[in-house]
Amino acid sequence: MLKAAATDRLTAALGHRPVTRGLATIFVVLLLIDVLLLVVNVIVRIAVGNDIPSLLSVSEDASLGEWFGYLKLGAAAAVLLMVWRLTRQAVYVVLAVILATIVLDDALQLHEHAGEAIAGVLTLSGGAGLRSLDVGELTAWAIAALALGIPLVLTYLRSTRETRKYVQLVAYGLAVLVVFAVGVDMARYLFVSGSAAVNLAMGALESLGELASMTLLVVMTLFIYDAVRPRAEDRNAVADHE
C-alpha cells in the first residue's frame, strides 16, 4: 500500500501514467543486491578485520561493490542518452556526461590525484579536522562541479517544462549520492572517534547510501525513458503518416 501510494504521488507530480511493475521489480532486485554486498562485507570484516579480500569489500578499488556501482551509473548514463535521442533535449547529454565523469573519476582516482597536485602547488593546509589532501580534493571537486555545472544550467534553462521536471528528479538522486559519497565520508574524519565499531557502522552507512542512491538513479532514468517514449513514438507516427 505504501509503495503504491508513493508511486502514485510521484506519477501525479510528474503528470504521467503509473510506473510499471517492471521498474518496481528492477528497484527491489538492485536494492537487494546492494544489501547483500554490504552484508557480506560486514560479516567478513567482522570475522577477519582489515584483512578482508578487496573483492568482497564494497568500497575498495576493483571490488564487487565498486564494479556494481560503475555498472549502474553506466546504465543510467546510457538510458539518458536514449532519452536524448527521443527528445533531443541537450540537458540529458550533459547529465549522462556527469554520470560518466563520476565513474571515470572513481575508477581512475582523478580527484585524488588532482587534489594531491592542488594541495602541493597551493600549499594548502587542513583545518577543522581535515587534512590538506582533503582540502585539495574538495577544491578539485569544486572545479569539476563548475566545469560541468555551467553547461548543465545553460541546457536546463533552454529545455522544456516537462524536461525540467525530469532533470530535477535526476538532480535529487545525484544530491543523495553526493551526501553519502562526500558528506558521510568527511564526517568520518571530522566527528567519528577511533572506535572500530563506530567506524564500521559509518563505513557501512556510506557504502549502502552510495549503492542505494545509484540504484535510485537507474530507476529514475528508466522512469523518464518510460514516460517520454510514448510521446516520441506518437510524434514519429504522425511524421511518418504525413
Secondary structure elements and their pairing?
Elements: H1 2-14, H2 21-48, H3 64-87, H4 91-108, H5 110-121, H6 132-157, H7 161-190, H8 196-241
Explain the overall architecture.
The chain has 242 residues and is mainly alpha-helical. It has one domain. The chain has helices at 2-14, 21-48, 64-87, 91-108, 110-121, 132-157, 161-190, 196-241. Helix 2 runs antiparallel to helix 8, helix 3 (64-87) runs antiparallel to helix 4 and helix 5 (110-121) packs across helix 6.
β-strand amount: under 5%
Number of domains: 1
What is the succession of H and E elements?
HHHHHHHH
Biggest sheet details: none
Q: Tell me, rounded to a whole number, the average pLDDT.
A: 79
User: What general outline do the C-alpha atoms trace?
Assistant: globular
Number of helices: 8
What is the CA-based Rg, rounded?
Answer: 20 Å
- How helical, in percent, are the residues? over 70%
Unreliable segments of 5+ consecutive residues: 237-241
N- and C-termini, Cα separation: 45 Å
- Could you say which structural class the secondary elements and strand pairing correspond to? mainly alpha
Q: How many β strands by DSSP?
A: 0
